[in-house]
């Protein structure tokens, strides 16, 4: 009888130990999960390579090689600039002219002959989008440049870009940015599902929301002056992005305020900072 009672006590305390063990396991799991979640919310900022990842490898800005390098680095996005040739073919270049040739006044035939410093041809938008295709990690951040000729040409470029993005099958990985507010609205009109952010820094988050845009991509100095725009945009579910942030101190300032994206000429440095 005594032996049976002892056995019962032993199995009872064994049971208690098992319960305690499972409770502490649960606690550990909850602790690990909440740590993971807090880490995720700390490092929510994503890296966008400005004109591709060109600087560290001395590649030409906006070249297909710089886009490929941004993809290799695993950047969230790779930004590039687009203009329209005289015969309405979109080309990828930042400035209005290259090697003395004004891009909007030259034919696509003439522009196709231009070589970048790495030997690659001046890329057409079509070639650029095809080079960024067949991957989903790096988003193609397409800046529609304002025409130096007319508003109508800026809007024509917006149309040409939306058509080409659809034709090449990269709509799901493409985001649009523009300084011209009307161009932003035009892209939204042509493809309401497209992600469109405004660059010029003169609209409040409330104005962007009313216009139906997805967010802002403002110069960092604008955000330093209007710090509340970051929290206001977050409340309104607008995306937040700052250009062009190259120094560690400003990168940290933006990361601490949980900005969604930082556009930088130093993607390697920012990726390291976010580790
Ligand atoms: Mg740009």
Explained architecture:
- This protein has 275 residues and is of the alpha/beta class.
- The protein folds into two domains: 1-43; 45-273, Phosphatidylinositol (PI) phosphodiesterase (TIM Barrel), CATH 3.20.20.
- It has eleven helices and eleven strands.
- The protein has an eight-stranded parallel β-barrel, surrounded by seven helices. Strands 4-5 form a two-stranded antiparallel sheet.
- The relative contact order is 0.11.
- Residues 79, 81, 143 line the site of magnesium ion.
Structural class: alpha/beta
| Mean pLDDT score | 92
Shape: globular
Distance between the termini: 64 Å
Give a concise summary.
With 275 residues, this protein is α/β, with parallel strands linked by helices.
Task: Outline the secondary-structure elements.
Blueprint: H1 2-42, E1 46-49, H2 64-73, E2 77-84, E3 90-92, E4 97-98, E5 101-102, H3 108-112, H4 125-131, E6 139-144, H5 151-167, E7 174-178, H6 181-190, E8 195-198, H7 205-211, E9 215-219, H8 220-225, H9 228-235, E10 239-243, H10 248-256, E11 261-264, H11 267-273
Parallel strand pairs: 1-2, 1-11, 2-6, 6-7, 7-8, 8-9, 9-10, 10-11
Antiparallel strand pairs: 2-3, 4-5
Helix pairs in contact: 5-6
Bound molecules: magnesium ion.
Residues 79, 81, 143 line the site of magnesium ion.
């Amino acid at each position: 009888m005594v032996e049976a009672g002892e056995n019962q006590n032993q199995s009872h305390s064994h049971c208690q130990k098992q319960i305690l063990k499972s409770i502490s396991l649960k606690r550990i799991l909850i602790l690990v999960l909440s740590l993971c979640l807090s880490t995720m919310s700390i490092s929510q900022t994503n890296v966008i390579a400005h004109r591709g990842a060109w600087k560290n490898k001395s590649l030409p800005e906006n070249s297909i090689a710089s886009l490929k390098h941004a993809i290799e680095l695993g950047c969230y996005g790779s930004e590039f600039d687009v203009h329209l040739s005289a015969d309405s073919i979109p080309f990828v270049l930042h400035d209005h002219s290259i090697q003395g040739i004004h891009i909007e006044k030259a034919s696509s035939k003439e522009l196709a002959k231009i070589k970048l410093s790495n030997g690659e041809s001046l890329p057409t938008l079509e070639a650029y989008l095809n080079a960024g295709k067949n991957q989903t990690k790096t988003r193609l951040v397409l800046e529609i440049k304002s025409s130096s000729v007319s508003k109508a040409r800026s809007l024509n470029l917006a149309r040409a870009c939306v058509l080409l993005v659809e034709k090449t099958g990269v709509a799901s990985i493409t985001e649009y940015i523009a300084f011209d507010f009307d161009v932003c609205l035009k892209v939204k009109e042509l493809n309401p599902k497209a992600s469109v952010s405004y660059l010029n820094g003169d609209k409040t988050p409330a104005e962007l929301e009313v216009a139906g845009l997805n967010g802002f991509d403002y110069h960092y100095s604008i955000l330093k002056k209007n710090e509340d725009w970051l929290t206001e945009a977050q409340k309104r579910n607008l995306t937040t992005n700052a250009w062009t942030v190259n120094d560690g101190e400003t990168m940290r300032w933006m990361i601490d305020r949980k900005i969604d994206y930082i556009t930088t000429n130093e993607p390697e440095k920012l990726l390291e900072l976010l580790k």
